[in-house]
Specification:
about 290 residues; mainly beta; Coagulation Factor XIII, Chain A, domain 1; Jelly Rolls; 5-stranded mixed β-sheet
């Protein structure tokens, strides 16, 4: 189950028609993008879509829209701008956020406090954790793990009793150079549920994993980072929330969609390959940010 973008189109306000390709407009006219979102969960969700419009002179105008979407329903978010100058306008979808009054059950999930980061433990010998200030996804620091053996870096949830028999979801950014180095997990005294292994390539990947906590569990580990012998990897922006989702990443998926404006009526000049590339940047990355 997820809250996800299922389509991004242009909305021609003059003709009241949705179009797959960018319109040809002149100065003073208005253009819009329509972001269609589906709430494929059993509950109504307050959903926010954040976007940005970049004008030809480089001035960025942020845009944000929030609305309640019923369980199983589709709805559109509109982002409009009036062309005040000629040139290319870029419309970028920045993030889709499901607002659920999330509470992070972890402390120091951004790893900004202490070196090694305060509140974080390890399982396995030898394994070293430290605060990293070069390979960072958000804030000023991340967690660096050097694994001499198969190991875990984790936080023991002190107030776990109220979560027995409930789902917990862990989500965060993971960085590794080598494939199959590490993955996130949620663990209790009865068992463990793992995310997919990191694919390597020296990139940050967003991971999410949900586990139904055993009602008889004697302890619960939150925000577990499971790694393998001889690997070095990094984690940042880590959350653990009750339920089947947690805040998704706020990241730029632009530049995305392009509208070109001329002082006079122009033909459409954006090649179809550019449109496809723009959509390819937005839809697959944004899609499934709340995927279970």
């Amino acid at each position: 189950m997820s809250v996800e973008i299922v389509g991004v189109t242009y909305y021609n306000q003059t003709t009241d028609v949705y179009e797959a390709e960018p319109p040809s407009i002149t100065e003073g006219q208005t253009s819009s993008i329509a972001v269609e979102v589906k709430n494929d969960t059993p509950l109504e969700r307050d959903v926010t879509v954040e976007a940005a419009i970049t004008a030809p002179d480089g001035v960025v105008s942020p845009a944000s829209s929030t609305k309640a979407i019923a369980a199983g329903a589709l709805d559109n978010f509109y982002f409009s701008f009036t062309a005040e100058q000629s040139g290319q306008y870029f419309a970028s979808v920045l993030a889709i956020l499901g607002i659920k009054n999330f509470t992070n059950l972890l402390t120091n999930g951004e790893f900004e406090i202490g070196d090694p980061p305060t509140g974080w433990l390890t399982e396995g010998v030898p394994v070293t954790i430290s605060r990293e200030d070069t390979i960072v996804k958000s804030g000023s620091h991340s967690l660096k793990v050097v694994a001499g053996v198969e190991c875990n870096a984790y936080q023991l949830l002190a107030a776990f009793a109220g979560h027995l028999g409930h789902e917990l979801t862990s989500g965060g950014w993971v960085y590794a150079t080598e494939p199959s180095s590490c993955m996130l997990s949620v663990r209790d005294s009865v068992g463990t549920t793992y995310a997919d292994l990191h694919t390597g390539g020296s990139v940050w990947e967003w991971q999410r994993v949900t586990r139904l906590i055993n009602p008889a569990a004697a302890w619960v580990w939150g925000g577990v980072v499971h790694g393998y012998a001889g690997k070095t990897f990094y984690v940042d922006g880590l959350w653990v929330c009750e339920g089947d989702c947690c805040p998704g990443p706020i990241d730029s998926f632009g530049p995305g969609l392009v509208v070109t404006v001329s002082p006079t009526i122009i033909q459409q000049i954006i090649p179809i390959i550019g449109i496809v590339a723009g959509l390819a940047l937005i839809i697959p990355v944004v899609k499934g940010l709340f995927k279970k």
